[in-house]
UniProtKB/TrEMBL annotation:
Signal peptide boundaries: 1-35
InterPro entries, sorted: 5'-Nucleotdase_C, 5'-Nucleotdase_C_sf, 5'-Nucleotdase_CS, 5_nucleotidase/apyrase, Calcineurin-like_PHP, CpdB_N, Metallo-depent_PP-like, TAT_signal
The name this protein goes by in its record: 2',3'-cyclic-nucleotide 2'-phosphodiesterase/3'-nucleotidase
Top-level taxonomy: Bacteria, Bacillati, Actinomycetota, Actinomycetes, Kitasatosporales
Compartment annotation: Cell envelope
Length: 611
């Protein structure tokens, strides 16, 4: 029977006291006396002296609501330039193959977080027909699929908290396996809010069962990125610090092997700067500084790492790390060899690899399982919300001011102006930040469907308004302009290397709607914004503005200057995506002439990069 959250929390506490959660039952872990009995049994000839065995731990991460190989923003089968496929239905096929090859009793399947946010499928069951409903709540499609595939454990990701703690809890209740988070603590007493770890038994046919401990760790940045949802309720201390606390506990509870499922990259730069004392991507540091870890399933950074070896500084032992590509495009496999001798299991070798889901068909059992939910969401995203006078494309948004990004700015600015009307800030100019989230977004000419707007704003961000000065707006833009390579006048332009400098992702490149400016990329970072003006006049450093900004940025995401500490003059709990949909419905017609126009340019010594 499925276990509920209370079962897992209770049994996790028992685990810390010396019991192991195994296949949904609590059993005694190995004590020194039990180990001695095993040794004695071997000496009497009742057990093999040595027996090498193998097992495989499979892992996914950053699924972001992908069950089927389907793109709800385009209402078509998913495809990209590399012809990758996505979805748990594909993962299921690979998992079945590995289990058939290795034997079910020699495999485990885990996930490293970011499960319930990212597609209109998961949005629908968080907001439209929510799983938190008091009467007859629907089943969550990700829970349905993961239960059917047979996951053994999953770690929390930061995006689990985008819809608030009640949605995370409702999702957790629907799972047949534990949702782990050793560093997700109740704010009042700093006790675990989720099970920190689970210990699973594998019966390998020699000696006593092998006990595999799975520790779940999530990202401390949740405290910043979803501050409105977690402040005063949960705290998220450092990954390395909590691994140091729990790995010895897992060993004491009888774990022969320790695997960490960490929603944290290996060695990426932090996006929250000095706002927290812990790094964002700490999996590499954890492997190097916490003894006793055998392998780490890495998440959060949406990268493919088949295998990374990190030597532990204390033991000298290599720890194996692997990160499968996001959206169920890849499956990581940790292949273990272990040896049983004198009553103990010892890891003799570990390696990792990734399997590509585009090599297999979808598991039709999973396709059928969520067919009704899929159909509901397809109907939902295809509702017509308005029309557009011309096609708006995001294709050139990384290096040109395009109308589709101005549309985001206009919607946000209008929402804030309406909210501030009649108040003390009503007469201040309102600006708005926007970023090119989705490189394939298009608002078509003619009919505009809900999925067109949703595909433009793919994150669950909400809207805030912060009070900034002209000087602070300039600092904000200077920081954003680090996105561009420095390019001397007359030097050839390579669009592939022009952007994403300093490891800056597209979602951390902001333009600001409502002011005009040039970005002189012949100049070094910090000295690029020129001709900054508002309504045709140079911006005064002391002039006050209201900046409409998403909650991720307002809470410090991307570490932009000033905004996180600026005075908040308004905030809204509804997603910006819904604000956009409502704006289009109210207008009826999207006319680029109402909001488009070139207000920022890339230049070199005053000469525009593009004519």
């Amino acid at each position: 029977m499925p276990l509920n959250r209370r079962d897992f929390v209770t049994r996790s506490a028992a685990t810390a006291a010396g019991a192991a959660l195994v296949g949904g039952a609590s059993v005694a872990a190995a004590s020194p006396a039990a180990a001695a009995d095993a040794d004695s049994a071997e000496s009497r000839g009742h057990g093999p002296a040595k027996a090498k065995q193998t097992f495989t731990v499979m892992g996914t991460t950053d699924l972001h609501g992908r069950v089927l190989n389907w793109d709800y923003f385009t209402d078509a089968e998913y495809d990209d330039k590399a012809h990758n496929d996505v979805g748990l239905a594909k993962i299921s096929t690979l998992v079945k193959q590995i289990r058939a090859e290795k034997g079910c009793e020699r495999t485990l399947l885990i996930d490293a977080g970011d499960i319930i946010q990212g597609t209109q499928l998961t949005y629908y069951f968080a907001r439209v027909e929510p799983i938190t409903a008091k009467k007859n709540p629907p089943r969550h499609p990700m829970a349905e699929a993961m239960n059917a595939i047979g996951y053994d454990a999953a770690a929390l990701g930061n995006h689990e908290f985008n819809y608030g703690i009640p949605v995370v809890r409702a999702f957790e209740e629907q799972l047949d396996f534990p949702l782990l988070g050793a560093n997700a603590l109740h704010a009042k007493n700093e006790k675990p809010a989720f099970p920190p770890y689970v210990i699973k038994e594998l019966h390998l046919g020699h000696g006593r069962p092998l006990r595999v401990g799975i520790l779940g760790l999530t990202n401390p940045g949740i405290a910043i990125w979803d501050k409105a949802n977690v402040q005063g309720q949960m705290v998220f201390p450092g990954i390395v610090e909590m691994a140091k606390k729990y790995v010895p506990r897992m060993k004491a509870a009888g774990a022969d092997v320790v695997i960490v499922s960490a929603h944290s990259g290996i060695d990426e730069p932090s996006s929250y700067g000095d706002q927290l004392p812990w790094p964002e991507d700490a999996s590499g540091e954890m492997a190097a500084t916490v003894p006793g870890i055998d392998a780490v399933l890495v998440g959060h950074t949406h990268k493919e790492v088949a295998q990374r070896l990190v030597a532990n500084k204390e033991t000298g032992k290599n720890v194996v790390l692997s990160e499968p590509l996001c959206w169920a495009q890849r499956l990581s496999c940790f292949d273990f060899e272990v040896e049983f001798a004198k009553g103990h299991w010892t890891v003799t070798s570990v390696s990792s690899r990734v399997l590509n889901t585009n090599t297999v068909p979808e598991d039709q059992a999973i396709v059928r399982l969520i067919a009704d939910q899929h159909k509901k969401v397809v109907t939902y995203v295809n509702q017509v919300i308005g029309t557009c006078k011309a096609e708006l494309s995001i294709a050139e948004a990384r290096f040109k001011d395009v109308a589709i990004i101005d549309l985001i700015g206009r919607v946000q600015a209008d929402a804030v102006k309406a909210a501030l009307a009649g108040g003390q800030y009503a007469n201040l100019p309102v600006l708005a930040q926007a970023a090119p989230f989705n490189r394939t977004a298009v608002i078509p000419a003619g009919e505009v469907k809900l999925r067109d707007a949703a595909g433009l704003y793919i994150y669950e961000n909400t809207l805030e308004a912060r009070l900034l000065t002209g000087a602070q707006i300039k600092d904000y833009l200077e920081y954003s302009a680090k996105y561009y390579a420095q390019l001397a006048p007359g030097a050839p332009i390579n669009l592939d290397t022009l952007t994403n400098q300093a490891d800056t992702p597209d979602y951390n490149y902001d333009s600001v709607y409502g002011v005009s400016y040039d970005i002189d990329i012949s100049q070094p970072v910090g000295s690029r914004i020129v001709n900054l003006s508002y309504e045709g006049k140079p911006v005064d450093a002391a002039q006050q503005f209201v900046l409409a900004v998403n909650n991720y940025r307002a809470n410090g995401g991307g570490n932009f200057p000033h905004v996180a500490t600026a005075t908040k003059v308004w905030s809204n709990s509804d997603e910006i995506r819904n604000t956009m949909i409502a704006w289009v419905k109210a207008k009826g017609v999207i006319d680029p002439a109402d909001f488009g126009g070139v207000t920022w340019r890339l230049v070199r010594a005053g000469v525009p990069l593009f004519q």
